[in-house]
Design a protein that fits this description.
Distance between the termini: 29 Å
Number of domains: 1
CATH architecture: 3-Layer(aba) Sandwich
CATH superfamily: Gcn5-related N-acetyltransferase (GNAT)
Radius of gyration: 16 Å
Number of strands: 7
Oligomer: single chain
Order of helices and strands: EHHEEEHEHEEH
Shape: globular
Number of helices: 5
Structural class: alpha+beta
């Protein structure tokens, strides 16, 4: 598997925007607002040092999965997996796990850790990769989400890693919808 990582958005890149829109469509199927996904990742890519967007490809250069990591606030080496979307035809095949392992290996400092907020139905998916569910996560997850941490080795309380790492993104739905519409128009006209 190959990974393409984008840390900043300096010019209009059709391939990156098409991948971002595809991830947005997949996340919308999972209950996210499509404009929220695009606006959040665009914010990560236009704010220096905020995080990255990634695309995982198979050996035939076909996109398998898309995702984004946000950097920690107090510890910029700590990562939060903000989004992960696996192409529908690859779900249940084990490629989602392989894709996420590729992303974790490329982007996460194992001595600092990583977190994810996810629906409870995905707890087993993440726990198979070493993530641990946390009980006290006030302000970190959305409604109907659980928070999980991939802890560094030999840490007693992995959930303590979340202290000082809360990343809150406020998104204005109307300006984000307009932003997404403008991107789709630009792609159509290019």
């Amino acid at each position: 598997m190959e990974i393409d990582i984008y840390r900043e958005f300096t010019e209009f890149d059709n391939a990156v925007m098409l991948s971002l829109i595809r991830m947005s469509e997949l996340m919308k199927d999972a209950g996210e607002e499509d404009y929220a996904v695009v606006a959040t990742v665009y914010g990560l890519l236009t704010t220096p040092g905020a995080g990255c967007f990634f695309v995982i490809k198979n050996s035939n250069s076909q996109d398998i999965a898309y995702g984004a990591f946000a950097n920690g606030v107090d510890n910029t080496k700590f990562r939060r997996l903000t989004y992960l979307a696996v192409e529908t035809k690859y779900r249940g095949s084990g490629l989602g796990h392989k894709a996420l392992l590729t992303a974790l290996d490329a982007e996460v400092d194992k001595s600092k850790g990583c977190s994810v907020a996810c629906p409870p139905k995905l707890e087993d998916f993440y726990s198979k990769l070493g993530f641990v569910a946390c009980q006290e996560t006030s302000g970190y997850a959305g409604k109907n989400e659980i928070v999980m941490v991939l802890p560094p080795p030999l840490i007693e309380n992995p959930c303590k890693l979340l202290e000082g790492q809360i990343i809150t993104v406020q998104i204005d739905p109307e300006s984000s919808k307009a932003f997404l519409k403008n991107i789709k128009e630009a792609l159509k006209n290019s």
